[in-house]
Amino acid sequence: MLLLKQISPPFHLHQLRRRISTIISAGFTLNLPKLEPSSDAELISQMLITNHNPFHFMESSLQLNGISLTPNLIHQTLLRLRHNSKIALSFFQYLRSLPSPSTTPTSFNLIIDILGRVRQFDVVRQLIVEMDQTSPETFLILVKRLIAAGLTRQAVRAFDDAPCFLENRRFRLVEFGFLLDTLCKYGYTKMAVGVFNERKEEFGSDEKVYTILIAGWCKLRRIDMAEKFLVEMIESGIEPNVVTYNVLLNGICRTASLHPEERFERNVRNAEKVFDEMRQRGIEPDVTSFSIVLHMYSRAHKAELTLDKMKLMKAKGISPTIETYTSVVKCLCSCGRLEEAEELLETMVESGISPSSATYNCFFKEYKGRKDANGAMNLYRKMKNGLCKPSTQTYNVLLGTFINLGKMETVKEIWDDLKASETGPDLDSYTSLVHGLCSKEKWKEACGYFVEMIERGFLPQKLTFETLYKGLIQSNKMRTWRRLKKKLDEESITFGSEFQRYPFEPYKR
DNA sequence: CTAGGGTTAG
Fold it and tell me: Which 64-103 residues of chain A approach strand B with CB closer than 7 Å?
């Protein structure tokens, strides 16, 4: 892979062939294990990226390497190209052009998702019409990407039109629930309720659908509406279950303001009320219920209350999960009680739960607050040495830490690690980096990453754009600005008011 | 994609 990287764009087949045979012979002498499909995919996608789509070489180089394009390998390659929509599409078209086309429904759905992320809906529609590989999932993916792009009306229309493409396989309640859930997750709860009311006769309704809508109102901090829907649900004869109540509980606890002590106490009472109501209906609160409350105590930095509550739940015979422990660890870290947090890590391990990157991120967050570069680097090294795989969020906190400290060399080092990691940079990574570079007045570099993030399908925040724009104009970098402007026109991106509405993707687990 | 909890954020 490294050897392939070194071949720069005007390259020749014999060059590529020589490199590949070097790799193969190196493999023999070093006795490397046989390539797995995933590392083959790594090789292919790397080849595609660094050599700017050498499709005319692909077949011969694949043959040389003894690789055959299995459906799984195609899928893996597309996965690795998911942030490079243009190359991914070229690869996909290449697959279609082969004598025996090797696209599968799975790879088809993946390319639809990749294109949807960069809002290439015209291409998506064209592919759906041209190819006969459309499954119900294809439409659900399209629906999700349309909603993510703020095109909710089109999303509902795509949902309605789907049966025409699916030999009249009708969507049922599950798919309807997905539509509503996606609308809610991206903040379009009102629209979801509208759609629900229009079609509840057709699709029916169950506790899941109501839970989705209640969660939607909670997301908008409309607890009053959430409670109204709970009442409506019970009135229409649908029994809420533990998930429904947990959603409501989370709505109350998550966004609850904790500042003046009275408000915090009022929220605690509200949460207790939900617990009481649950028990009245014969539903026992579960680990999730307790974790939600623990999280609220943790946000309020109530270390003692958090620890007591955890004891209480253990006494009730409910075993904490990794989420529960992480909440408590977060609380201890944010109270500066790092030693106790470390002790809790040991307790976790003893009870058979190994900390995740999310757990360790609490420590990184505290190091960031303390501007403790050594603490952060030590833990980071331990993680790299096999303690636990850092997540994108881990990298993001680290980036923030060293940007704040002005240590741009370390930032570069972490960025390279992040680039090489499995998941790669996300919207937040790019945002931090671009803002960091802007604060150092490295406008051209910032601009480069800004363009890169767009190419990878991340929609920058309006603030990021404005910061960069002001910097470029003030420092008279008109040529860079014009290049950027051209890019934005090409991708038809404008930073109007509508862009403030969906700066983030909903969190996925 | 498949109703819910932990990490992140100028």
Answer: none
Domain end (from A81, A103, A125): A103
- Identify the three-state secondary structure at position A320: coil
Q: Which residue has the tokens 């270390």?
A: A303
Q: In chain A, how many domains are there?
A: 2
Nucleotide nearest to A436 (CA to C1'): B10
Q: Which nucleotides of B are covered by protein (CB under 7 A)?
A: 1-10
pLDDT level of residue A30 (50, 70, 90 thresholds)? very low
Q: Tell me the HSE value of A255 on the side-chain side, using a 13 A CA sphere.
A: 12
The Cα–Cα gap between A178 and A132 comes to 24
Q: Give the domain range for residue A447.
A: 425-509
**Closest residue by Cα to the C1' atom of nucleotide B8?**
A393
For residue A93, tell me if it sits in a domain. Answer: yes
Query: Do A213 and A191 meet the contact criterion of CB atoms below 8 Å apart?
Result: no
Amino acid found at A93? Q
Residue that finishes a domain, picked among A88, A103, A118: A103
Residues A206-226 have pLDDT tens digits of: 999 999 999 999 999 999 999
pLDDT (average), residues A424-444: 93
